[in-house]
Amino acid sequence: MHFRVKRPELLAPAGNLEKLKTAIHYGADAVYLSGKLYGLRSFAGNFTISEMEEGIKLAHKKGAKVYVTVNIFPRNEDLRKLPDYLIDLEQIGVDAIIVSDPGTVIMTKELIPEIPLHLSTQANTTNWRSVEFWKDQGISRVNLARELSFSEIEYITGKVDIEIETFVHGAMCISYSGRCLLSNYLTHRDSNRGECSQPCRWKYMLMEESRPGIYLPIFEDDRGSYILSSEDLCLIEYIPNLIGAGVDSLKIEGRMKGINYVGNVVRVYRKAIDEYLDNPDKYEFRNEWPEELKKVSHRNYTAGFFCEKSTRGSQNYSSSSYVQTHDLVGVVREVSGNNEIRVEVRNQIRLGDEVEFIGKSGEINHLFLEKMINEDGETIEIAQPNQIVILTVNFPTSVTDLIRKQK
Ligand code: SF4
Predict the structure, then answer these.
(1) Which is more confident, 165 or 178?
(2) Closest residue to atom 4 of ligand 1, CA basis
(3) What is the pLDDT of residues 301-354, one digit of tens each?
């Protein structure tokens, strides 16, 4: 296979302003976020218009772009406030709007024709003719369905001349990305309007009609019965393939996840992309990358459909809970010249703990906590969440660096 080398964008989720700053700090080229209206992920925090404006200014100052999701499948009543919202988005300077519904596409083109439109994965685009169709509708970028294999992605990028975006990391749906009514039926929460309660992750039992209350376990095999729960996508191994295929944007899922997830996942993908682009011929996959990705909150990882067919291994049979080996314990808030730093504590730390500072270029520095000082200048033994502590370090750190501790 002949690989082309074009620098792809690394696109990260930003559920709030802090996540936006963290994603950009660790090397995201662009972030996507939602306002309080019209974006899937109703429970991610999300931005008011003025927060979005602040986020956009901050991102632009650092050379990063901001895309705003307007990708729900709106009902008629949802369309009433949409024009005002779209005009607000144009006025605050968004770089693109992410859409999935054809009615929203038409309204957006009529009202704010200058703003680029990206087609969401919710539109489930699975072939090159569909990509061309959307291009004819004025779409400038298509996020392909997560269910495509690499050869299908490569075939599409070879056929079309608009930007192609693919997911490389994060949670997967058991249905075509959100096109699922399980949540509507079981909890009256509409997954296509950002309210999915994730019943695909629940543990199900079998009950015979005349024996209420007697639950018969379902065993797919000896691991259990999470019959609908997908593992999480992780394509860190396939970065050269995606770059070689000419994919324009590599997207990370997870607007609901915390800054530890956003910062570390961005950092690892940034490193892999940069190392490949620096010297494609000498590029070597580093085993530490998947190991680092296991330190953040995740379900077991899978390559999903990327390598042709999904397998039984893509299914989470034994548990639907997240796993994570490290906790976020703090964020660097101020750095002074004499190696003193002010840290905002996020999880309890105490003297004797060993913590890891995660530098923005990927370096990890270890520190044994031998001395902690509070804001009143007193030496303390334990620091609690939200407290500010002063630490002394003998390695470089910068504001927004994350600090973690092994569980
Ligand atoms: S219930 Fe599961 S499969 Fe359905 S939309 Fe929600 S996350 Fe996706």
Answers:
(1) 165
(2) 180
(3) 999 889 866 555 555 555 556 778 899 999 999 998 788 999 999 999 999 999
- Sequence letter at residue 33: L
Burial (CB < 10 A; 0-12, 13-18, 19+), residue 234, is: buried
The one-letter amino acid at 149: S
Question: Could you give the domains of the chain?
Answer: 9-176+229-314 (3.20.20.70), 326-406 (2.40.30.10)
Determine the residue of 182, 203, 230, 314 to mutate for testing ligand 1's pocket, defined as the one with the most ligand atoms within 8 A of the Cβ atom: 182
Q: Whose CA is nearest to atom 6 of ligand 1?
A: 198
Q: Which residue type sits at 150?
A: F
Rounded CA gap, 129 and 286, in Å?
Answer: 37
Q: Give percent of the chain with pLDDT exceeding 90.
A: 68
Ligand 1 residue neighbourhood (C-beta within 6 Å): 173-175, 178, 180, 182-183, 191, 196, 198-200
332 within 8 A of 343, measured Cβ to Cβ: yes
Distance CA 51, CA 28 (A): 19
Q: What is the pTM of this model?
A: 0.89
Indicate the top mutation candidate among 40, 122, 173, 232 to test ligand 1's pocket, ranked by most ligand atoms within 8 A of CB: 173
Instruction: Please enumerate in sequence order all residues whose Cβ is within 8 A of that of 213, keeping only pairs 6 or more positions apart, or say none.
Output: 207
- Helices 102-111, 82-92: inter-axial angle, 10-degree rounding: 60
pLDDT in tens, 20-74: 999 999 999 999 999 887 766 665 668 899 999 999 999 999 999 999 999 888 8
Tokens of 355: 């913590």
* pLDDT attached to residue 313: 55
Q: Is the dihedral of CA 199, 201, 202, 204 positive or negative?
A: positive
> Which residue minimizes the CA distance to atom 1 of ligand 1?
198
Residue 64: closest CA among 2, 101, 111, 22? 22
Beta strand spans in 241-335 (E)? 249-252, 301-302, 326-335
3-state DSSP assignment of residue 232:
strand
